[in-house]
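Q: Got a minute? One more chain.
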Amino acid sequence: MHTQGRTFDFVGQNIYTGIDVHKKNWRVSIYSEQLHHKSFHQPADPKVLFQYLSRHFPNANYHSVYEAGYCGFWIHNQLQDLGINNIVVNPADVPTTDKEKKQKADPVDSNKLAKHLRNGDLESI
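A: Always. Here it is, folded:
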């Protein structure tokens, strides 16, 4: 990324991504150590996510998480192959508040996953 002739470099910084996976598209939420960067929809393709992370956070340490479900582990394998440290979690093991249960929605889920990944609250299955 260039701004006024400068190149940003995120070496040594961690970027955390929560992914709510669906067949045709994903809801993605991205956090740094300090703040929420962005939430958005993207095609269901690990390469698209990697391209976004590489463009906006060059040379960072990328971490991602999604809940186990119908899609199995092909996403996990491709994310790992692209250099994204991914984990797959049991949905029942993700800490959830009563409010989050009542407001079940993709943005809530992807944000929750990214925050818990950043906080170290999740265990891979």
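A: The mean pLDDT is 92.
Q: Perfect, thanks.
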